[in-house]
Amino acid sequence: MPQPSPSLAMPAVPDGPPERLAALQKQFSDHIRDPENQDPVDGIEERRLAIYRRLFFNNLSNLFAANFPIARKILANEDWDRLIRAFMVKHRPTNPLFPEIGREFVRFLAEHPEHYAERWPWLAELCHWQFQATAARNDESRLELLDYDPEGELLDGIPLVNPTLRMAQYQWPVWTIRANRLPDALDSMVLAIWRKPDDTLGRMKLNLVTARLLEILQANSTQNGQLCLNQLAGEMQHPEPDVLVRQGQQLLQSLRDKQLVLGVRID
């Protein structure tokens, strides 16, 4: 974030207890967040305060526009500005990491639907889906350093799921939402997104069986692919487990082709 020039610096704080400085800092930040309802700090001219207010608001607005481009295109400028201001006023981030600021916006939307749900009931899910792409892209897993055999036998070996995989179930068809194509009905779906070894992103709509198999594989580090499919068959109370295992072998191969499953682990 750009740093203010020395000419914008806050006035020197007179000697006194640290509580006085903390109170001054809080008053300053409260005013930057909510200038209409919080008084400014005495001794700072309005011109400087206006620069601070624009700096913080515009930086945050531009950052969220980059993280959630579809949502930004859908909302009119004044609606977007009101949402950013509500975030500044009501939300207190719990994570100091700069790349995680988008997750804080998603959390704000989940906790404060009163700011958008009447007009855009799908907005929180849309932003969650868009942030999944950021999370997969920024995942620190280094795929090139993992020990696995990309051609290994998936039934006999232990399948290795791509560690950058993110999955979530949505009630709205966030996959298809665009500025000129807004949803008018619920359409529940499970969506997956992951980073491939070539650093591109893969996206896929999953049925519930495939999603559950991937959950089993993600939690598994000891059982081979056949045992994982047997577990799935048991959960489904499938009348012919052997049939599901044969079909599951093809499914595992398909997931490997998409690099959702990377191969089998090497001990």
Write up what this structure looks like.
The protein contains nine helices and six strands, in the order ααααααβββββαααβ. It has 267 residues and is mainly alpha-helical. Strands 1-6-2 form a three-stranded antiparallel β-sheet. Residues 1-11 have low confidence and may be disordered. It starts with 17 loop residues before the first helix and ends with a strand. It has helices spanning 18-33, 46-67, 69-74, 77-90, 101-111, 123-138, 208-219, 225-236, 241-257, and strands spanning 148-149, 159-161, 166-170, 189-195, 201-206, 261-265. The chain is elongated and about 75 Å long. Helix 7 (208-219) packs across helix 8.
Features:
mainly alpha; 9 helices; 6 strands; three-stranded antiparallel beta sheet; 267 residues; single chain
Strand order of the largest sheet: 1-6-2
Mean pLDDT: 90
Number of helices: 9
> Would you tell me the structural class of the helices and strands?
mainly alpha
Write the layout of secondary structure elements.
Layout: H1 18-33, H2 46-67, H3 69-74, H4 77-90, H5 101-111, H6 123-138, E1 148-149, E2 159-161, E3 166-170, E4 189-195, E5 201-206, H7 208-219, H8 225-236, H9 241-257, E6 261-265
Antiparallel strand pairs: 1-6, 2-6, 3-4, 4-5
Helix pairs in contact: 5-6, 7-8, 8-9
Summarize the structure.
With 267 residues, the protein is mainly alpha-helical. It has helices at 18-33, 46-67, 69-74, 77-90, 101-111, 123-138, 208-219, 225-236, 241-257; strands at 148-149, 159-161, 166-170, 189-195, 201-206, 261-265.
